[in-house]
Amino acid sequence: MCFSHLRWNFVFQRPHHIFSRIEKEATVYFLEEPIYDGDAAAPRIDVTTPLEHVTVVTPVLPQGASTGLALEAQRLILSDLLARHAGAPIVFWYYTPMALLFSAHHPCDLCVYDCMDELRAFRGASEQLEPLEDALLRRADVVFTGGRSLFEAKRRLHPNVHLFPSSVDAGHFAAARPGAAGGPLADPPDQRAIPRPRVGFFGVLDERLDTDLVADLARRRADLQFVMLGPVAKIDPADLPQADNIHWLGIKRYADLPAYMAHWDAGFMPFARNDATRFISPTKTPEFLAAGLPVVSTPIRDVVSPYGDENLVAIAATAEAFAAALDRVLAEPRAVRQARADAFLAGLSWDRTWAEMRRRLLSVQPLTDAADGFLETPVGSPAVPIGS
After folding, report:
1. Closest among 366, 4, 367, 347 to 170, alpha carbons compared
2. Half-sphere exposure for 271 (CA within 13 Å, toward CB)
3. Which tens digits make up the pLDDT trace of 270-323?
4. DSSP string covering 95-153, please?
5. What distance in Å separates the CA atoms of residue 216 and residue 213, rounded to the nearest whole number?
6. What is the pLDDT of residues 15-47, one digit of tens each?
7. What is the DSSP string of 220-244?
8. Choosing a second label site near 181 at 20 to 30 A (CA), which of 10, 38, 82, 133?
9. Furthest-apart CA pair in the chain: how many Å?
């Protein structure tokens, strides 16, 4: 049972990488937060199966439905699923402590808190997050963190915390490199008319993006085209800077990202430095490198160390420094930098991440008491229909 604040049908992120591997060994229910639909006359449940053994469950409620109704809908869904799998080893895997509001009363064989973000620091965060995270840390058998900054913040709060920083599917992004197997990827139609050189970004466009920096860079460097991919969240789209050389192309499928990146000349990560970015460990850092692109980033702690320290990513704190860094990385020979990046990335993969997570889970005493090993039951414990 995965309790996620991120939706499956959104930007492909850490939960997708991990659970697309777990589902090869177990039946997975990915429980999303409710959607509020003005056209819904009554509550309903939307169910999709994006992977063979992953069932995504989304409560859909009438617009204006109370928090109490939302929690009751989630309680009923969870109780129904658990009853239908009575007797099977059950793992609760939390990305959001808010899910405790409807799940805390249920027992499970193993409780995992995979802390990929400091959600309390995000815009619009609930005042309940802090006490609920404290409760989740008391309940969890094991805690994983998505970056070193988070690890350092959480390690003193729980006796079994392990660092699993952002990893990479290097083969997926290597398709963007010149000379990649299968031949060059075609430039996507909505990017084809944009002149070169192109500097690109992909990810959620929210309060973590330094829009002033993007605007300043575009003014300073009219010779560069800035391509921005991703959905807008928690900020007004009208606040996004507009210029002839800034191109907001919207959300793209994970499968299509290499085609866009194959026709970029550099990647950039113009993250703001604020509470929301204090603990982030951007997955796109190794993804840019795997695609063969030079990268410039603002001084985000988990980018500076290790990527800046290893001279894999150029770090710049101001628009002036950022523009100069882009000049340097665009001019430098790619082969030497790519060799360094490949040597670093050789130690990273989501397969390795899941294998090591699995090993940690198998060592947790409550689970080894409940079953011979984590996910040792056959994957056919099929997903069962969910009642309305």
Report:
1. 347
2. 28
3. 999 998 899 999 999 999 999 999 999 999 999 999 999 999 999 999 999 999
4. S-GGGHHHHTTS--SEEEEEE-S-GGGSTT--TTHHHHHHHHHHH-SEEEESSHHHHHH
5. 5
6. 999 999 999 999 999 999 999 987 877 888 999
7. H-TTSEEEEES-B-SS-GGGS---T
8. 10
9. 64
